[in-house]
Amino acid sequence: MAQMPDNGAPDEPHEREGSSTAPDADTPGSMERTGPPPVGDVPRATRIMAIANQKGGVGKTTTAVNLGACLAERGLKTLVIDLDPQANASTGLGIDVRAVDATIYDVLLHGVDLASVVVPSDSDPNLFTAPANLDLAGAEIELVPAFSRELKLRQALEPVRADYDYILVDCPPSLGLLTVNALAAATEVLVPIQCEYYALEGLGQLVHNVDLVQKNLNPALSLSTIVLVMYDARTKLADQVAQEVRSHFGDAVCRTIIPRSVRLSEAPSFGQSIIGFDPRSRGAIAYRELAKEVSHGAT
Hints:
With 299 residues, the chain is α/β, with parallel strands linked by helices.
């Protein structure tokens, strides 16, 4: 799973209806549906964000699903591409992956048009998903002999990218060919970092790979956004990790911090984003604030 359990963190009393308690001064925000965004929120060109971190359980899928849903809620047409064979982003957005005729696997390996596999959301007319399934598990090997193997996703996106304001690519927890495809297709990289011990472990290799892709495949790529997730206000460690991440990445680190939340863990089992499952929860408030911050940063 791309999401770690909450280990029994007793945050439930703070998430009952009517509560707006947030774990950090950077997190609170409006619980009201914002409706269509102001002109300043709309990006001038499609922003394609690869959500990547080779560590598992750091909130990549949680961020892809909930940031996507919150951007769509702001009136921004958003496509979430599930590039993880576990297909958690697909199921988290209410898709029965056993019932779909074609997935992103067929797009990458068989040349199927991306538009034909996109599934519209039942919850928001601005939200769409390109689902995955377990077939994608063999794609790393099957792509090895393929011509232009690193550019399959970029080529598939070309006919449809102008149809969306945001395209979020949920990457697998590895730095293999699927992640390289995401980096080669993206304009930006968003890295979720958990507020826990060893948070920065292995990130040097991710940064190195981003540099390699930028130099050899995608000069437009930038590591633009770091999101602190799984923040537990009860521990000093969370603050120490947040300070360390900010010292390493500076202005790339979002002001909004995503709290550790039982509700965020529960929502995928109901096939819903957090704003559909519990729109008044701390997790919903935080992801709405993150969407606002990300969209305000559009250039």
